[in-house]
Amino acid sequence: MTGIELTAGIITASKFIFMDILLVIIIIIVMQPILQYICNYFKIGYDDSDNKDTKTRSDLSVHTDHKTNLQYLSHPKGGLIPRLDKNGKHMRVYPKKH
Question: pTM of this prediction?
Answer without folding.
Answer: 0.49
